[in-house]
Amino acid sequence: MIRINTDLRRKILENNEDIKKCYQCSTCSASCPVLRYDPDFNPRILIIKALYGSEDTIRSKEFWKCLSCDRCNERCPQGVNPYNVLLKLKNFLFSQNLAPRERIDARELIIATGFSYPISSAVDRKRESMKLEPLESIGEELKKLL
Amino acid sequence: MKQYALFAGCTIKAALPHIEMVARKVLPLLDIELKELAFTCCPNADFRSTDEYSWLVVAARNLALAEKEGLEILSLCPGCTQTLKEANMILKDDDSLRARINKRLEKIGLIFKGTTEANHHLVILHQQIDILLQRVTIPLYGIKLAVHTGCHLLMPSRIMQFDSPEQPKKLGELVKMLGGTIIDYPEKTLCCGFGLFGSHKGTASRIIRDKVESAYLAGAEAFVVPCPSCFQQFDRNQLVAKRELKFEYQLPVFYYLQLVGLAMGFDLDEVGYYHGRVRSPELEEKIKSLVKKAVVNI
């Protein structure tokens, strides 16, 4: 049984009206490289549960398995843009402190240094051997900006 | 000679600097001058998944830096290209959002006006294919390559506007310009699976196994990719998958500009091939013999 959370449903639909156009055709699921290998990640089911405002689904870890390949957006005949719906749900989870730790750490690394990879003397030595400039942190400027 | 702001991206700068090295070697010989700017992470899709607004702010800063120099951006990474193109389009289209973001950029003395474009080097090279053709001195005759364009250069197609997401052809055309032979394979448009390697290694490994198997059985000798994430998945992660899933075959991978370098007369070492982990001694010999044949022909 699915417990429907109307508040959550309203929040999900805010600025996201296109999701209502989903007629559950499963084109997204048939196109999804993750579902092909992992039956627990099913975009069609995630969309209908998001529409219901199903709290359990939204708190589940399944959301974060998306490879962000955009194939579902490309093929969706209704312009629901499943990838973008998932993005908005993930943004909502992050704002509620429910994002996975590794996503929060990855975000903080970028804000701290400007790079998504740790910068280190080992990286700089490798770059120097190829006559490339060392990497300099741009974190201070990003902190001012964010 | 046209000047561009080089957007190498974090993966290449920190994990695959030999790709930056080969880009800096090869692109100026194709009349493309590169300028270094203080770009940050584009930022990537993971960053976007936490907060889309700050994603847009950081992307706007990168675009504004190029605008200030009056330069277009040449990117080495499809993911960065997609972020920069999409953010550029969103900000050009939405006056009130642009005004809000510009308030933030003001704090660091920048402004987003919407006067620059960001493109991957494949897009730029495909537009000047005659120059590429003129510079080929050692055609890659007989080298059988499986093309993997990946996802972000193709989709969303209304933003990327580069090639068909269902039947991509342009990277194949660019490989043929170098004399290479294209091997079609059933899993050509399957995502490489890199994004799940950190969190769900089993899934990512099965995806890369199926890609490699499909291309290997079709007769390919190597992959060619335009993307540093795909490169890592086909290179280091292919070996991890091979150990875990115990498959027999393996195929090395080239970043497209490494092939351009070979076709222009650089050797395997000069294009950074030996920084890759998957090797094929047979293919290496075949590539070395291309040079000998070319010398005999002169």
Straight-line N-to-C gap of chain B: 29 Å
Structural class estimated from helices and strands of chain B? alpha/beta
Q: Please tell me what the overall shape of chain A is.
A: elongated
What is the C-level CATH assignment of the largest domain in chain B? Alpha Beta
Provide the helix percentage of chain A.
55-70%
Elements of chain B, N to C (H/E)? EHHEHHEHHEHHEHHEHEHHEHH
Spans of at least 5 consecutive residues with low confidence of chain B: none
Q: Assign the CATH topology of the largest domain in chain B.
A: Rossmann fold
Instruction: State Rg of chain B.
Output: 20 Å
CATH topology of the largest domain in chain A: Fumarate Reductase Iron-sulfur Protein, Chain B, domain 2
Strand content of chain B: 5-15%
Mean pLDDT of chain B: 96
Question: Hey, which two chains have the biggest interface?
Answer: A-B, 49 and 50 residues
Largest beta sheet: strand ordering of chain B: 2-1-3-4
Number of domains of chain B: 2
Number of helices of chain B: 15
Kindly describe this structure.
The complex is a heterodimer of chains A (146) and B (298). Chain A starts with 5 loop residues before the first helix and ends with a helix. Helix content of chain A is 55%, strand content 0%. Chain A folds into 2 domains: 6-95, Orthogonal Bundle (Fumarate Reductase Iron-sulfur Protein, Chain B, domain 2); 101-145, no CATH class. With 146 residues, chain A is mostly helical. Chain A has helices at 6-13, 27-31, 33-37, 43-52, 55-59, 71-75, 82-95, 101-113, 121-129, 139-145. Chain B is of the alpha/beta class and 298 residues long. Chain B folds into 2 domains: 2-122, Glutathione S-transferase Yfyf (Class Pi), Chain A, domain 2 (Up-down Bundle), CATH 1.20.1050.140; 136-297, Rossmann fold. Chain B is built from 15 helices and 8 strands. In chain B, the strands form 2 sheets. Chain B has a 4-stranded parallel β-sheet. A 4-stranded parallel β-sheet of chain B has the order 6-5-7-8. Chain B is globular, with a radius of gyration of 20 Å. The model of chain B has no long low-confidence stretch (mean pLDDT 96). Chains A and B meet through helix 3, helix 6, helix 7, helix 8 and helix 9 of A and helix 1, helix 2, helix 3, helix 4 and helix 11 of B.
